[in-house]
Design goal:
Layout lengths: L2 H12 L10 H13 L7 H24 L7 H22 L5 H26 L5 H25 L11 H17 L4 H37 L1
Helix pairs in contact: 1-2, 2-4, 3-4, 3-5, 4-7, 5-6, 6-8
Length: about 230
């Protein structure tokens, strides 16, 4: 089988259970399709989930060490973000590529691990912040995890699971965080403003998504009432 055919088959396999709308979806999906074909057999989806969680821990710790020792430790957060992308993006996709999906187990484990990982990152960021700005770190945790709750509600109501909010997805968020970390090392103190802006964007996006889901829920109620 030619390489292009293998890639196309891998793309179909990894796209079975979700619809992506983020800006970088084409590049990201092709990268994932390329990687799952070359993953050693001993690497399981559970191992990849653990690798993704490790990446979040590295990102959380980079804030702690950045506050205690030097802002240059923040650069390790870039490595942590890539590790998280690698594990978090490939765990479920590898299972579908190998035709061994554990849909509900994997879905549950992924949500729980991501939820806990975001809390650790938020706590690390709160440690990095000065006391008067702790509310920003707390607000970020709330808004990011609210986005996950919204994704679950959308899945329940529409039977379509999406991890993206319009053109923005986890990958775009990771890239933005990496850029902000570099800027923080060069110009200490600016990451706070990035966090404030990101939290506001998440707040607006969450409100928009909540209103949309409420409308969809109301529409589904009317359809089911008509049906019965």
């Amino acid at each position: 089988m030619k390489n292009n055919e293998k890639l196309d088959n891998a793309l179909k396999a990894i796209s079975k259970d979700r619809q992506r709308t983020n800006m970088l979806r084409r590049f990201e999906q092709r990268a994932i399709a390329y990687l799952v074909q070359r993953m050693p057999l001993f690497v399981s989806s559970n191992i990849l989930t653990g690798i993704g969680f490790l990446g979040n821990l590295i990102l959380a710790l980079c804030f702690v060490f950045g506050a205690i020792y030097s802002p240059y430790f923040l650069l390790f957060g870039i490595i942590g973000s890539f590790i998280n992308w690698f594990g978090d993006s490939l765990d479920g996709r590898l299972a579908y590529y190998r035709n061994k999906p554990r849909k509900w187990y994997g879905f549950t484990l992924d949500i729980i691990v991501d939820f806990v990982g975001i809390i650790f990152i938020g706590l690390g960021f709160m440690f990095y912040l000065e006391t008067q700005w702790l509310v920003v770190g707390y607000a970020f945790i709330v808004m990011y995890n609210l986005e996950m709750v919204i994704a679950l509600l959308r899945y329940k109501i529409t039977n379509q699971y999406s991890i993206d909010s319009g053109f923005l997805g986890p990958t775009e968020v990771r890239i933005a965080i990496c850029i902000a970390l570099i800027i923080e090392v060069l110009f200490n103190g600016l990451f706070l403003y990035f966090a404030i802006l990101s939290t506001l964007i998440l707040f607006i996006a969450n409100i928009k998504d909540i209103l949309q889901i409420i409308k969809l829920a109301d529409l589904r109620d009317k359809e089911e009432k008509t049906y019965f």
